[in-house]
């Protein structure tokens, strides 16, 4: 909705007590020469997305700065060239470049660590192949020697009673005995 002259005056009533040169300096530092009061108010209104402005802020000039920052650093491109918008676009591009560089450096470091791990494994495999497997056999023997030994369990029947060491016939199921007798 376009701003009329009266509506623009009512929208800026809260700036009455601020000296005009300070308001002009604040606006001029952020906007270009093509901006009108109506265009400024429209940009501020678009950035506010329907939220009301304060009627009597405690610091009117500071509130004007906040409104202009919101209008010129938001997602909407202003209708006229603005110094603050150009600066904002450059800041966003620089931040994006920094993020890309940081991400590339992180990826490169992770890749270097992964390649170092691969190289270590390849060197260990080459050393193992060159030694004929004696290192692996020695390591396995050392691991077996260090492991606690469990006593062997004696075989038990279905009732849980111990069987004699060589008596395997009692461990067989009953249907096997019939097969052995038939066969």
In short:
This protein is 63% helix and 0% strand.
Q: What would you note in describing this structure?
A:
With 183 residues, the protein is an all-alpha fold. Among the domains are: 78 residues, no CATH class; 45 residues. It is built from seven helices and no strands. Helix 2 runs parallel beside helix 4 and helix 3 crosses helix 4. The radius of gyration is 42 Å and the shape is elongated.
Q: List segments where confidence is low: pLDDT < 50 over at least 5 consecutive residues.
A: none
Number of helices: 7
Query: In percent terms, what proportion of residues is strand?
Result: under 5%
Number of strands: 0
**Order of helices and strands, N to C?**
HHHHHHH
Sheet with most strands:
none
Mean pLDDT: 76
Rg calculated over all Cα atoms: 42 Å
**Looking at the structure, what is the overall shape?**
elongated
Distance between the termini: 104 Å
Fold topology:
Layout: H1 5-11, H2 20-30, H3 37-48, H4 60-73, H5 83-131, H6 134-146, H7 174-182
Task: For the structure shown, list the relevant keywords.
mainly alpha; 7 helices; elongated
